[in-house]
Amino acid sequence: MSIEKRAAKPPNRLLFFAAILLPPRFTPMSVRYDRRYRTLDKYRFIAGFLAIPLAFYAIFVISPFIQAIYYSLTDWSGGPIANFVGFDNFVKMWNDERFWDSTTTSLTLLVIAPVVTLVLGIFFAYMITAGGRHRKGQAISGVAGSSLYKVVYFFPQVLSVAIIAVVWGRVFNTNAGLINGGLDLVGIKGPAWLGGEYGLALIAVLTVICWSFVGFYVVLFSAAMGGIPKDIYEAALLDGAGRGTTFFKVTLPLIWDTVRTGWVYMGIQALDSFAIVLVMMPSHAMKVTPVFLYERFREGQFGYATAIGVVLLLLSVVFSLVVMRLGNRDRIEY
Amino acid sequence: MATAAAARPKTTGPSVKPPKRTFRPRTLVIAVVAWGLAALFLAPYLEMIITALRPKSELRDRTYLPSSFEWSNFIEVWKQSELGQNLQVTLLVAGGATLLVLLVALPAAYYTARMKFRGRKIFLLLVLVTQMFQPTALLIGLYREFYQLGMLNSVWTLIITNAAFNLAFAVWILTAYIGSIPAELEEAAMVDGTSRFGAMIKVTLPLALPGVVTALIFTFITTWNEFAMGLTLTTDPASQPLTVGINNFIGAYTVQWNYLFAASVVAIVPVIILFAFIERHVVSGLTAGSVK
C-alpha cells in the first residue's frame, strides 16, 4: 500500500487522540502519515520545548511589566488596596523638583557615558588589533600581549556592580582614598568627591561607569575589527594611508553597526546606573532617576515609584530609537 | 643577517615594508601609556585587597601599604556578620538559577536552532528585546507578584527571577552555538536508529558542550553578582544574597572598610575562578549571536 493511499483514508479518531497523548514511537502507521497529525505533532513539539521558557517570560518579565503600567495609574502603597487615580502620579512627577533633579543627572549620564565609553573602547580595541608594528609582511597586527589587555579591561564586567561601587567608593574616599592620596603626593588637597558637590560626583560616577563597561566594548569591537578582511587594510596601506586615515576611512565605517548597537546598550546601562550611585553615595549626595524611584519604593509610594519606572522605560525606548535613527548609515557589505 | 633573511618563509603574501628594528621614542611612549592605563585599571583591585588586610587602626591612614597585614579580618567578618548565611543564599540562588536555565534554555535553544517554525524570528526578537528591559523598571511589578504569593525573602524567588532574566542570553548564545553544529550529524545518528531525543543527547549535546558551559558559567556569574533584585525582594538580612549583605557594612555615617573589603574579596574569588575557565570563550560567546 502506498503512502498516499494511507494518508487518503482518515484514521480512526480514537487512535488519533491516543497517538497525540502517547510518545511518538507508539504512533500507529495509519495515524503517522495523516496531515492533521503531522501538524499537531509539530506544535506538540514546540509546546514541549518552548512552552516553559515562554511561560517564564510571560510570568516574570512581561507580566511585571504590564502590572507596572497598570499600577503606575494607581495610588497603591503596598497594601491590598490600589485605587485607580488616572495620570495623577505623572502629574505629581511633573511637579516634583526632586524628579527633575535626578532625571537631569540621568540624562547627563545618558549623553556623556556612552560617548566616552565607546570612544575609549574603540581606541583600545584598535590599539589591540591594529596598534602593533608592521611585521612579517602583515598589513596590520595587534600589540604584544593583546589578550592580556583584553582580560584586564574585561574583568570588571564579571564583577558585581555592588562590589565595583564599594571599591570605587573607597578609591574616591576623601580621607583615605587612592585618588586623594595621589593628589596629596603632588601637594594638592583632594576634594570631597562624593560629598555633595555635583560636578565632582558626576565625574566620579562617570569614571566608574566607564571603567566597568569599557572592557566589554574592547572585546566586542576587537571581535568586530578582527572580522574585517586583511586585504582591505593592505589596499589602504598600498594607497599610502596612515594609521589615522585607515581607522577613520576603513575600520570605523566597517564596524559601524556594532558601534551603534553598543551605543544603545551603553545608553540603557547608563540610564540604569542604580547600584553604582546607590552604593557609592550612601548619603545620596547625587541621585539618578532609579535611585529616586528606589527611595519612593522604600517610602511605600509604590504607585508613584512604578510611574517613575514607566517613564524610565519610555526614556530608554526613545533613546534607542533616536540612536538607531541618527546612526543610520548605508550598510557596507564586505 | 643574510641567513636569517633566507630562513624567513618566502610565502608571506604581498610584502609590505620589511620592519626595521630601530628604536623609536614613540613606541616607548605608547608602551608606557598602555602599561600605565592597564595599571590604572588594576589599581582598584589592589586597593581592595590591601584594605581588606589593613588593621583597624590604620584605616584612615593615607599610606598605601599598611604596617602589617591583618589576616584575621577575614575571620572577624565571618563571625560578626551574617556573611555565612549570605554566602549560602548566594550559592543556592546562583546554583539553582543556573540549573533552571540549563533545563529550560537548552531545549528551547535546540528547538529554535533546528526547526524553522513559524514565529522563530519573533521568538528570537522577543528574546533580544527582553534583554533591553531595565530590571529597575520591573522591580516593583516583581515585588508585587511575590508579595501576593507571599514569597518575599524566599530563596526560590531569587532563583526564579534570576533564571528568568538570564534565560534570554542563554537561549541566544545556545541557539547560535547549536545552529553551528551540522544537523547532518544528527540525521546520520537517526538513520542509524536513534530517536530525535537520543540524537540530541548523544550527538549534539557533547559537541555543543563548550557553548553550554560558557552560557552556564555566564548565568552563574551574573546571578552571583545580581544586586537590584536581591535588594528589593529580600528584607531579612539572613536571607539576603552576598552582594546585598556586603552593602550592610556601609552605614550612613561610618563604613567598616576592612570588613567590607574582606567580604568583597570572599565574594569575588569564585567569580575569578569561574571566569578563568570561560575567558577564552568570552569573545566567541559575545559574538556568536551576531548575524551577519
TrEMBL record, chain A:
Record's protein name: Sugar ABC transporter permease
Pfam hit, one: BPD_transp_1
Protein family: Belongs to the binding-protein-dependent transport system permease family.
Originating species: Streptomyces finlayi
UniProt keyword list: Cell membrane, Membrane, Transmembrane, Transmembrane helix, Transport
PANTHER family (alphabetical): ABC TRANSPORTER PERMEASE PROTEIN (PTHR30193), DIACETYLCHITOBIOSE UPTAKE SYSTEM PERMEASE PROTEIN NGCF (PTHR30193:SF41)
Major localization class: membrane
Source domain of life: Bacteria
Automatic annotation (TrEMBL), chain B:
Lineage of producing organism: Bacteria, Bacillati, Actinomycetota, Actinomycetes, Kitasatosporales
Region (Disordered) residue spans: 1-20
Annotated protein name in UniProt: Sugar ABC transporter permease
Membrane topology: Multi-pass membrane protein
Keywords: Cell membrane, Membrane, Transmembrane, Transmembrane helix, Transport
Any Gene Ontology CC annotation: plasma membrane
InterPro entries: BP-dep_ABC_trans_perm, MetI-like, MetI-like_sf
Subcellular location: Cell membrane
Domain ABC transmembrane type-1 residue range list: 87-278
Protein's UniProt keywords contain Membrane: yes
Family under the similarity heading: Belongs to the binding-protein-dependent transport system permease family.
Keyword Cell wall biogenesis/degradation set for record: no
Membrane spanning stretches: 27-46, 89-110, 122-143, 155-178, 199-221, 257-278
Organism expressing this protein natively: Streptomyces finlayi
Any GO BP: transmembrane transport
